[in-house]
Amino acid sequence: MFTLLPRMGPEDGRDTAVRLLWLGSALSGNRMRGWAVANVERLKFIQSLIERMARNSFALKGWTVTVVAALLGLAAHQSDRRFALIAIYVLVALAGLDAYYLALERSYRRLYPAAFPTPVPSDR
Length: 124
Hints:
Elements: H1 16-28, H2 31-78, H3 81-114
Helix pairs in contact: 1-2, 2-3
């Protein structure tokens, strides 16, 4: 019995995932299929990261409004400026964290179009 896998040694630098993708596409008769499945999974992973960053940023904004409003309410009710200063500190800290999440989200959004490599044409 012969094998469809080409000879690949450790010196080739190819890992098991590449071998399995090649085998799956060779057995199906379509070399592009293994590449397309791997690329779709990669794009889904990037999209899930973007969605998670957006959810975290949204939740952080909600917490910021809640905590700052509560601290400013305490400052007004008790006539204590310390609560207002703490509210400003919380506002700056959470705004910095939100900016970090937005920067990460933008970097993944820039990565998304770059994840479309040109497909390798078949040997036909």
